Amino acid sequence: MSTHTNQSDTEAFVTFTVAGQLFGVPVIRVQDILTPDVIAPVPGGPKQVRGLINLRGRIVTVIDMRTHLSLPKADAGQNGMCVTIESRGDFYTLFVDSVGDVITLPRSLREGNPATLDAVWRDVADAVYRTDQGLLVALHVDRLLAIQSKA
Amino acid sequence: MSALCLIVDDSRVIRRMANEILKGLGLRTAEAENGQRAVDFCRTTVPDMVLLDWNMPEMDGISCLKALRAMRLEPRPVVVMCTTENGISKIREALEAGADEYIMKPYDQDVLMDKLAQVGLLERA
Amino acid sequence: MDDLLQEFLSETTESLAVLDVELVRFERESSDATILSNIFRLMHTIKGTCGFLGLPRLGAVAHAGENILGKFRDGELEVTPRAVTLILKAIDQIRVLLAEMESTGVEPAGSDAELIDEINAAASGAAGAAPAPAMPEAAADGPAFSDEGFPVAAELLAEVAHALKHDSQPVPESPAPAPEAPRAAEPVRAPEAAPRAADAPREGEAKELANSSIRVNVDVIENLMTLISELVLTRNQLLQMQRGQKDNEFKVPLQRLSHITSDLQDGVTRMRMQPIGNAWNKLPRIVRDLGVSTGKKIELTMQGADTELDRQVLEMIKDPLTHMVRNSADHGIEDGIQRLAAGKPETGTIALNAYHESGHIFIRIADDGKGLDLERIRQKAITNGLATEAAIAGMSEQQILQFIFRPGFSTAEKVTSVSGRGVGMDVVRTNIERIGGTIELTSVAGKGTTFLIKIPLTLAIVSALIVEAGSQRFAIPQLNVVELVGVSDRSDVRIETINTSPVLRLRDRLLPLVSLRGVLGLEAGSRATDRFVIVAQVGANTFGIIVDRVFDTEEIVVKPVAPLLRGTPFYVGNTILGDGSVIMILDPNGLSQAAGQIEHSDQTATQDQNGRTGSQSGDQTSFLLFRTAGHELKAIPLELVARIEGLDAAIIEHVGDGRHVVQYRDHLMPLVPFDAGHQWKQRGQQETLVFSDNGRSMGLAVDEVVDIVRDRMAIELSSARAGLLGSAIIAGKAVDIVDVGHFLTQAFADWFDTSVAQYTTRHALLVDDSPFFRNLVAPLLTAANWKVTTAADGAEALKLREAGHQFDVIISDIEMPNLDGLALASAIRNDPRWNKVPLIALSSHAEEGDIHAGREAGFDEYLAKSDQTRLTENLARVLRLAGRGEANDNLKRAS
């Protein structure tokens, strides 16, 4: 795994799908990926916070990506996966529909945010990539989590 | 047994570097953060060599040097002063106070090797 | 990243922090050669290490800094703010470069030529300018110059100069920053005297260098802390299991294990302690820069910088402290001209003071500036729609000041770029409360503003009650739990509603209730008839929380909530239980606010649907509002009322000389009407407020029970009408406050008689030489269900002690003949008979010095007579606590 991704000409992403859209976060930001066991809800908390989980003794906030990115709600009974990331010392885990492979994309395929990109996404997207699986929205982790506090 | 060198410098980064270099050359090392701790150390253990920085809090290099010499340690340790300045008067001052050698910062492995050979410590590996 | 580089980054960052502080000190004491040589050495070391590690860009900046410092040292350059600013710029640039190196691992390419040129220009520009105060003698052969154009002998000369100044040998032992060398002719109290206390952290630091210490990565400590916490919990479980068993071979080893665990816990807790100076060390620089940019002269003094507190707590108060200091410097301290015109010294002072006391850390931030502008706050509050003009008019100064803690409230005329708009005092207070602390504010127009922060020493393990509501479990800190009550439709103890507000009849009291399900919006689920009420106490307020189930008490490790969740008012943290599940820890304070969110027509609560009821937290009382014949609203503190009954008029009996009684629960209960001309109903319901004590009950007949509201108890005393204590504004309406004592004695002349009273009656001793004042305060006490004995001075009070009387609380004036309050307090505390009784001082003098003297003498609480509204409020609060028979430290906690 390349550590100095900003030096090389490729970027590695952990990919996941939310409501049919493919997203990616830089692999170096991902702590782990897991199937959530029990998520403890936080009544009265912000809508995007699905709850909290116990991750090896650490309390991690679960963020429901559908809610956060204003995507339609999931069908009842649909399970999800969690992608755990760290930002400014706190741990968060993104609740998504499914997690894909770790893929390495050449920077040459990187494009700026198209004008058609949803306003909410524009804030959190770092770039988009045209891949053979479709359009991949590369998320900017810190900005993704920064939005939360305004909500 | 290989020679023991006491590294005296208030910067832990520099102490560490010196440590690595000296260990790489086969010497044993010990560290002290300032002149006072160096003096304390020498009360119980006499090093073969002291790599002594000039600028330190609590007790600076020159004072430490004078103190060490006044202690009349046996066998007499080799003292190498180091600093970034190289004016004639400084060197004179150091030598008059009892230093055996004078070395400029930043130094590297080669420089130290030279000095160690000059004072005859490298043979004792 | 390279380990060595990491080490370099960390060491250099520390040096820069010290440089900041020292440079600011030096700017003020530019004659102090010790500080200068220290600064020089630090910069020199940075330059040196850069050379070793091959960091030319960094080295160049450090070299420029060293250059100009060298000029100071040789007396070739005058120490001007401009020059110091340039050095600070160099330090900042080094920081920037370090930050980049931290993320990329290499020195950033580029050059700082512009900055370096500027610095060098300044360094050479003032050649031959005013000499430095300690003019060093040139060495006989003149200073030699090194390759870098730097006078080599300068250092030696500086040492000589230092020696000459302090009259010691030419080569001093050490120019350490220890204050042992006499500071020539600088009396400690001179206005320009450096913060002497700032020496403390320096000295401590120097000592630390000398002491053995090792560096440990923060994560390692955190992990250790978590492990120890787990160990503690497991130890507790084992002890619990052991308790049930008879003596066996496990008992002794387990005890030993227990001791060791406790010691370990203490040890690790101490490891996490850091001196508060670490949070302060950036402040001198900030204040200095603010002074320069605003043209004001400001001095920052810091005392108690070595007061230690938990690292996590330190992290959380760092920003609030900085914000408050900036505020003081920016908005509090006036400019020189204004200050002089006001008769103040030209230099403004911001004083930081930290100390430990009874398990808490106190931090005081006081400035001698112009104080908070009350009028402006009033206007702002009205403009922002936070309160109506009428409500404002009725508020005390303290209440007005509290507005600054409301979100978005900033009274600065122009929002300067200095303090910024982003952080407000609301965030400050929230941050402090999140760690279980409190913040108080006093301000005197023209004199200055003082903040007092009180925070717990550590975030540690607490005992908590685990409850369930809406199929979810929560934890409530045991500290706040007074009692657990099971309620059902069948039992005596029932949940009732009075005008839609749920209350609980509990023995002799009525408690306002809040439903956990309701407040958190959880699913209603089945209306189970068996539920539980947690009787909780927050400060002086008692209320009940309705939950579905109650589990055990567990010891939990409190973990602060994630930043995302900090806006929710009901949680004070979260934790992981023994079974691995994550649960939220409830904030009883937040819940108690919800208990009061019932009505409040013209109060701000209606605007504040999602959050708290009002900015005032705590110190609210529940009042029962009712009407009597005159159709005016009357009020009584709810907790005095045992029950509200609608008695069947038919069963009320008239027994000679105008008295009425009713058969009530197996005994005859006297009924007293509010007004003498009360028309007794012949049929229908007679609304009655029942008061109970010691098995005796009395009913007060009223016309209509209107509501239960929550508000501050701020009574305007007036003894005009019998049966009334005075009046108050409650929920925006003017109501009369009923003097219950009056009616109680009407029903039973001997209600307050000593011979009938048993140990459960609370007895207060009021000591004051003024009969007027005794007569004013005594009814307040009786209204709150106290029996009152009075004494005219300290000597009389002590005579009562000799006679064997015991009291539950003693309230005393200070200025009295024969034996004054301070002496009385002293005498009480030094004698076993009364020394555990809560002592309250009530005095016309309430300056800080008086308060301090009072506390020193042994008073637990100090109230001012002058502010009548607060008097009743505070007295009520304090009495409520004393009445519960709680020890003195509870009083302190609430104060």
Explain the overall architecture.
The complex is a heterotrimer of chains A (151), B (125) and C (895). Chain A has 151 residues and is mainly beta. Helices cover 13% and strands 48% of the residues of chain A. In chain A, the strands form two sheets. Chain A has a six-stranded mixed β-sheet with strand order 8-1-2-11-10-9. Chain A has a five-stranded mixed β-sheet with strand order 3-6-7-5-4. In chain A, a hairpin with a 2-residue loop joins strand 1 and strand 2 (21-26). The longest helix of chain A has 10 residues, at 141-150. Chain B is built from five helices and five strands, in the order E-H-E-H-E-H-E-H-E-H. A five-stranded parallel β-sheet of chain B has the order 2-1-3-4-5, with helices on both faces. The relative contact order of chain B is 0.19. Chain C is of the alpha+beta class and 895 residues long. The two termini of chain C are 51 Å apart. The chains are: A mainly beta (151), B alpha/beta (125), C alpha+beta (895). The interface between B and C is medium-sized, with 31 and 35 residues.
Gist?
Chain A has 151 residues and is mainly beta.
Sum up the structure in keywords:
heterotrimer; A: 151 residues; mainly beta; six-stranded mixed beta sheet; five-stranded mixed beta sheet; 3 helices; 13% helix; disordered N terminus; B: 125 residues; alpha/beta; five-stranded parallel beta sheet; 20% strand
* Average pLDDT rating of chain B: 84
The radius of gyration over CA of chain B amounts to: 13 Å
Number of E-type strands of chain B: 5
Q: Are there runs of chain B of 5+ residues with pLDDT below 50, and where?
A: none
Tell me the fraction of residues in β-strands of chain B, as a range.
15-25%
* Computed structural class of chain A: mainly beta
Total helices of chain B: the number is 5
Shape of chain A: globular
Largest interface: B-C, 31 and 35 residues
Give the SSE order of chain A as H and E letters. Answer: EEEEEHEEEEHEEH
End-to-end Cα distance of chain B, whole Å, is 7 Å
The assembly state of the depicted protein chains is: heterotrimer
Q: Whole-Å distance between the termini of chain A?
A: 35 Å
Number of helices of chain A: 3
**Secondary-structure element pattern of chain B, one letter each:** EHEHEHEHEH
Widest sheet of chain A: strand order? Answer: 8-1-2-11-10-9
pLDDT < 50 stretches of chain A:
1-6
Mean pLDDT of chain A: 82
